[in-house]
Design brief:
With 157 residues, this protein is of the alpha+beta class. It has a single domain, classed as Alpha-Beta Plaits (2-Layer Sandwich), CATH 3.30.70. The chain is 28% helix and 28% strand. The protein has four helices and ten strands, in the order E-H-E-E-E-H-E-E-E-H-E-E-H-E. The strands form three sheets. Strands 1, 2, 3, 4, 5 and 10 form a six-stranded antiparallel sheet that branches. A two-stranded antiparallel sheet has the order 6-7. It has a two-stranded antiparallel sheet with strand order 8-9. A hairpin with a 3-residue loop joins strand 8 and strand 9. The longest helix has 14 residues. Bound molecules: 7,8-dihydro-7,7-dimethyl-6-hydroxypterin. The site of 7,8-dihydro-7,7-dimethyl-6-hydroxypterin (ROI) has 9 residues, from strand 4.
Length: 157
Amino acid sequence: MLAYIGLGSNLDNPKAQLVSALNSLSECNDIEVMTLSSFYKSKPLLDIPGPNYINAVCKIETKLSALDLLEICQQIEENQHRVRDVKWGSRTIDLDILLYGEQIISNDRLNIPHPEMTNRAFVLVPLFEIEADLKVPLFGSIKGLVDRIDISDLIKL
Ligand code: ROI
């Protein structure tokens, strides 16, 4: 299965946090990291106070189920000392499964396509960078999605 994972961090050397999470994904036997986008810098969404974020998107190939992939992502978040306190608070690392093949998944643990991805420049722009022809289930072409959002805050590093 091909899947796309969004990575984000705004604490404790965000670039190094992304690199560390990517290394952990690569080291996982059942995951092959195929493509990585550039890193992008942006202000916290909704002007929530806090340091700038670094975001990226990677494409992986995996035999894991979506739920097993979620477990791996959460394990990596835990290993990098992610603390879940305030909703939308700062974080050392956030790993979101954006897409899992063409599947639409909706249960109490997973919503795929990731429900917020269509509003977020820091997801759509790196996704477009690595897969310009992508069709997002339920939402249509990645090109169409990128064209209708404000990308002015996003800086490609
Ligand atoms: N804002 C930016 N710029 N990047 C993120 O990855 C990010 N992640 C979040 C919230 C807190 C919504 N804001 C973000 O979870």
